[in-house]
Amino acid sequence: MKISNNTPARAIDFSDIREGDKVFQNIHFQQNDLDRFRVLSGDSAAMHFDPAFASNRGFEKNIVHGLLVTSKFSRLLGMHLPGENSIIQSINFSFMSPVYLSQELLYVVSVVRVVQSVNAVLLDLKASNGDTVFVQGKAQCVCVVDGNNKDE
Prior knowledge:
23% of the residues lie in helices and 34% in strands.
């Protein structure tokens, strides 16, 4: 299912999630995204805001924060697949290539495995453009059914 910024959240019933299910969205980052992330995270490293600094370290220009890039998976996981009835139990990312402002990335979340016995979904995560993979990762989400599975 293709997602846009205006696509409403959906509460998927765990029993409806199947291996091979996917959601995807095209996303690009602008300067205001970096500025807001700087305020939120407190990360004002020159690599993200000074093109000359980044260039002197081998990059074309300043790069988008890696955690800002990966943060876009939160919406896809929490609102679309596996959806609002889930929580992230574990997640990991590998950063393959730097992301620059205005580059469009295709974010894809794919269901790899559904573990019925523990209401868990294993997912592959990827942000790419054509043949270039910027970020890849894996996540495990637990679907909370009728107030169960609380880890508090």
